From TrEMBL:
<protein>
    <recommendedName>
        <fullName>Dihydrofolate synthase/folylpolyglutamate synthase</fullName>
        <ecNumber>6.3.2.12</ecNumber>
        <ecNumber>6.3.2.17</ecNumber>
    </recommendedName>
</protein>
<dbReference type="GO" id="GO:0004326">
    <property type="term" value="F:tetrahydrofolylpolyglutamate synthase activity"/>
</dbReference>
<keyword id="KW-0289">Folate biosynthesis</keyword>
<dbReference type="GO" id="GO:0005524">
    <property type="term" value="F:ATP binding"/>
</dbReference>
<dbReference type="InterPro" id="IPR036565">
    <property type="entry name" value="Mur-like_cat_sf"/>
</dbReference>
<comment type="similarity">
    <text>Belongs to the folylpolyglutamate synthase family.</text>
</comment>
<feature type="domain" description="Mur ligase central">
    <location>
        <begin position="62"/>
        <end position="234"/>
    </location>
</feature>
<keyword id="KW-0436">Ligase</keyword>
<dbReference type="GO" id="GO:0046656">
    <property type="term" value="P:folic acid biosynthetic process"/>
</dbReference>
<dbReference type="GO" id="GO:0008841">
    <property type="term" value="F:dihydrofolate synthase activity"/>
</dbReference>
<feature type="domain" description="Mur ligase C-terminal">
    <location>
        <begin position="295"/>
        <end position="416"/>
    </location>
</feature>
<dbReference type="GO" id="GO:0046872">
    <property type="term" value="F:metal ion binding"/>
</dbReference>
<dbReference type="InterPro" id="IPR036615">
    <property type="entry name" value="Mur_ligase_C_dom_sf"/>
</dbReference>
<keyword id="KW-0479">Metal-binding</keyword>
<dbReference type="InterPro" id="IPR004101">
    <property type="entry name" value="Mur_ligase_C"/>
</dbReference>
<dbReference type="Pfam" id="PF08245">
    <property type="entry name" value="Mur_ligase_M"/>
</dbReference>
<keyword id="KW-0547">Nucleotide-binding</keyword>
Amino acid sequence: MPSHPDSGRPAPVAPGVGASLEQWLAYLESIHPIGIDLGLDRVLLVLRRLFPHKPAGRIITVAGTNGKGSTVAALEALLQAAGRRTGAYTSPHLHRYNERIRIDGNDIDDATLIRAFERVEQARGAVSLTYFEFGTLAAFVTFAEAGVEDWILEVGLGGRLDAVNVLDADLAVIASVDIDHADFLGHDRETIGFEKAGILRPGIPAIYADDDPPRSVLQQAAAQRVALALLGRDYEIRHEGGAVYLQYQSLRLSLPAGPLPVKSLAAAAVAVHRLEPELPPSTLESVLARVRVAGRFERLGEAPPVYVDVGHNPHAAGWLAGRVRDLPGPPRKVIAVYAALADKDVEGVALRMAPVVSEWHLAPLAVPRGLALADLSARLAAAGVTGRGHDSVADALAAAKAAAGEDGVVVVFGSFFTVAEARAVLVSGVP
């Protein structure tokens, strides 16, 4: 039996027949010594055993610092409206791993996911895979077995060296480029843009969903003769009389002022218009108006209203601050609930959100990389922000709701973990 890569001890034993999904996920966490280990060599070896040839489905790959999840959800809904069978792979999840893999909009069930894990385990042999790599290959297996026509794949981290990138995209979307995961991707937008542009392929169509692309993205697109649709050059988002419109070639759409980033919705519409040009504009509009994503400026509860958002970097916090500022009705005091991971730019997030927040309630995250309350408070203080500390997100949420009363609004943000804890209370009533 091969040894575990980091210790010489026997490798973990794969779950047997009848094992639960929880047992499989625990196993996936144990078989590779590094949680994030970018590179394609390992996953390519196993991919070729599982798929000697490129899968028959159309591959749509979505990268970006922020806006990926909204773009994927919009693509998924629009392509289903065109009569296509879709598979969507996203990460991370809020409550259950099954959220990461959807077929025709429905989360995968445990039995199907376990069967996919078993196939990947059989194929990998002695190849060590990370938790994300293993899950990515399982998603591919699931989509192939279900006969999915459109594989919508969200990059986990970066692009060039992310496991999703082992499949050549037939269309690529880069939702945005800003600074996050700097230790892995680089400390400036040009370097990070190069990593995101790694999902491009020679001659394929692609969309860049923001109006300030790094030169590195444009250079990679030009070098590979990518048919790039660029916001502000090839299509426009126009604000007219309080309404928002997309103009792309002869296509003109009304875009919803809903909870999702309008740039993500516009990019998805441009992508689907390229792929399915016969889909009527009226259908595009009605579908986009209904798209929602759990944890993306999601409103949960009344009196006071509570919004939860997974934004965890300054770029996302800037968008969130704008949404809070634009809430309809008279101005209301905004009570923030904030908890973060230790490797995030807490000071940058605080500076973006501080102009719209009246009062801060802080909590630790009891997860790996979670930021302790004392450290969170100290880093916020460095940005000129003070807040009241609590033992948990649930406690911070309760105090924030009390402080808001009926005239205020509560905004919970900072991490998928932060939102998951808040949603457990707000949706399920579980403290």
